[in-house]
Amino acid sequence: MATFVLGSGSAGRRMLLENAGLSFEVLPARVDEAAIRADFLRAHGADELPLLADELAAAKALEVSRRTEKPVLGGDQILVVDGEVFSKPRDMEQARAHLRRLRGRTHHLISALAVAEKGEIVWRHRDAAAMTMRAFSDVFLERYLAEVGERALSSVGCYQVEGPGIQLFERIDGDYFTIVGLPILPFLHWLRGRGLLPA
Amino acid sequence: MATFVLGSGSAGRRMLLENAGLSFEVLPARVDEAAIRADFLRAHGADELPLLADELAAAKALEVSRRTEKPVLGGDQILVVDGEVFSKPRDMEQARAHLRRLRGRTHHLISALAVAEKGEIVWRHRDAAAMTMRAFSDVFLERYLAEVGERALSSVGCYQVEGPGIQLFERIDGDYFTIVGLPILPFLHWLRGRGLLPA
Known about the structure:
Chain A is an alpha/beta fold and 199 residues long.
């Protein structure tokens, strides 16, 4: 019996929640993320960038909650480096450019969740992880891109830490679930508080 | 081309290293872990318990390195709670008893790695994660055990955080790779330093 709706088409978020033993439906949100992002960046400074993840998560949850009576979980993850937000790379050339920018420095992955019910946000959570890439060589970079191929395009950082992407890193400080885009412990806590999961 | 040998039959450690894109052989160690553990506990106090993980990892690496010229990675993970070491549960009844002991408190997962070459330890690493279980109900515990079944017997804590085991927790402080039993970043660093992995 589905107790909530995941308002996201992300295969990663879906698998994470399924693996945790939760029952839910999936209704991907129909929001113009690029427009929300552009509006946000016009109105806010670099120190407010983490709020962009909140805004995108909330927009997704709200849109889907207009189509169901159940609580809707929306989620978003952004990558911030030196006061700039990275989007998912559109092609391998951009993935290469992103990884060149990211190597030898620390970026932050910011993951936000929002639950909407009947058109209102009823719960929010945000967490960040600090990811320090090592100063890998161009030779390493080309081998990496050849190995992972199009999978580099499926995440904002061009990597999966649970795959060969771990070889890009020198140091990782943060929660695994935040890194993969869904800080699950606080969401489980919320579900239990709402009586949607046994305590 | 295999650059090292994993001296462990653990499916989890093998998968972790494979997912990271490493090439290696597997030669499970033949050591009497129970005897090493019993000797250790006779000779050491509760504050030295983390060293038991080091000793087991080193014993495994050393034993296998007598059968190969390649560097051998040995690994071990122990669970410490209130100055006591838990072993893997031998049956579901013991898993139930362990989880009753662990709920509502913080335990530590201690993961150790050792590399042996030609009968000598050439590298060591140890890390710990603090795992706080919530005070879940007996009803929850029985549902959990029914859901995971024999999988509860495959880890010292009777859980996999990447599965329904995450529902047992209130808070987790520590590196994901330490929690799953193989702190991989320092090992990758060692492999690169030895020229066994491209930099």
